[in-house]
């Protein structure tokens, strides 16, 4: 399967659907849940910039450089964020999971863990990746902790790597999961999600 082919990935809590301009209003509402665009350590589009961000991601899809998703609650279909497969390197069988943001009400609910499980499974089991990267701001301790809970290893820090919308310069933490680690990472994610789902149904 080509790396840059849109796909729908479905789980118990979350469904990742190909990003569409029709998702605009739902994504504006999701970004407003917590005023996420005000955070300095991540890039979440403001309402007036959401259409341009959707088109930017779809443009990268057309160029074969990104597979963008809308993150939805499986139970309702409600959009709660965006995520992507990006920096697609098919010859070397690598890619990055990134450009992710989630509504405040979706954070800490298992949505992120299941979304990552779905994308990692697609990368390793369908696309045959050797390695999958995850990157985040050095100052985004919540994101770093979530990535480390996945079982990803810190490869290093790219210092003064990226200019943020507010003009600050980001140091980027680069993590990865390699194919040999995937079975253990998958098992731990499934255990965590199973515990959460069992608790929710009790």
UniProtKB/TrEMBL annotation:
Signal peptide region: none
GO function term, MF aspect, one: acyltransferase activity, transferring groups other than amino-acyl groups
Listed Pfam families: Acetyltransf_3 (PF13302)
Location of the N-acetyltransferase domain: 14-176
Taxonomy, superkingdom: Bacteria
Protein name, as recorded: GCN5 family N-acetyltransferase
């Amino acid at each position: 399967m080509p790396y840059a082919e849109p796909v729908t990935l479905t789980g118990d809590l979350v469904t990742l659907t190909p990003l569409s301009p029709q998702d605009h209003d739902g994504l504006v509402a999701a970004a407003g849940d917590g005023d996420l665009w005000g955070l300095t350590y991540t890039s979440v589009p403001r309402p007036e910039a959401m259409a341009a961000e959707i088109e930017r991601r779809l443009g990268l899809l057309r160029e074969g450089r990104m597979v963008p998703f809308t993150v939805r609650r499986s139970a309702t279909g409600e959009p709660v964020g965006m995520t992507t497969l990006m920096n697609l390197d098919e010859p070397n069988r690598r890619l990055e999971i990134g450009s992710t943001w989630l509504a405040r009400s979706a954070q800490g609910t298992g949505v992120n863990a299941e979304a990552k499980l779905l994308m990692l499974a697609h990368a390793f089991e369908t696309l045959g990746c050797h390695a999958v990267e995850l990157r985040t701001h050095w100052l985004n301790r919540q994101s770093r902790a979530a990535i480390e809970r996945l079982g990803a290893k810190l490869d290093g820090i790219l210092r003064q790597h990226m200019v943020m919308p507010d003009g600050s310069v980001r140091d980027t933490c680069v993590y990865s999961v390699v194919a040999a680690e995937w079975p253990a990472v998958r098992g731990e994610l499934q255990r965590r999600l199973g515990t959460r789902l069992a608790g929710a149904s009790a």
